[in-house]
Design brief:
The chain is built from 13 helices and no strands. By secondary structure, the protein is mostly helical. The C terminus is likely disordered.
Amino acid sequence: MQKKSTVGQLILTEFKSSFEKGECPICEIISDHLERFYSWFVIESYYNPGMMDELKKAYGFCKEHTWKLIEAGRPYITGVMYEYITHTAELNLEQFLKEIRMLGPKRKSLLRREDQRKDFKKMTGIFTQRFQCPACKNLAENERDAVLHFLMVLKEEGMKDLYVKSKGLCLHHLLQVLSISKEAEAIFLIEDQIERTQRLNGELREFLKKFDYRYQNEPKGPEQDSWIRAAKFFVGKRFDPLPLIKRLEKGHSLKATASKGDVRCC
């Protein structure tokens, strides 16, 4: 009798697809979700009242995700976002100025005494106590779900074999999964990673050997990208929303793009 699945079909399909790609499967999944977040943002979310409220409280995206948006070359959308944010900043700066003037003579030595430093910190809190970047929030939520779902998927029939054939988890996500794994799951994942690390180390040695003039003419094999795979294991996949955004600029709808497997839509 076939064992009843404890995972939804959509999640199972999502992980099967991620196992077939050349990255950490959890990196792949959260990257897809973050790509979808950016896509909906440039289509319609940028003027959604709820989103604008989040962006105003956070003063926009964080540094990394702001530059991703700028690199995408969406000046109107970026301008709309910052028109709201700069207005909020203007009001806060006016309030800041009002509070400084109320200090009277103390403002000449605003940071000299402990109590004055506390006053300054309290006043600047409107700028420094920022809410979480909406893109970072999206990433964190989907990462948490993906880690939990990974362990559920691993229990499904045939999924361990698919995982062994995949590129495996990056170190960051391996440690996250291990932190909530039971003993049997932890042993399986660590033993699997030891084998992967041994192979990778051997390929790195072979790659470096061929820089020696005595071996330069030897045939080049899969070891040639071992240095990139090693870096990916330690830092994870680099997220880049530009390819999908560029496709959307050319007139592809998000649903049409998703149907080709580029974005997973519910």
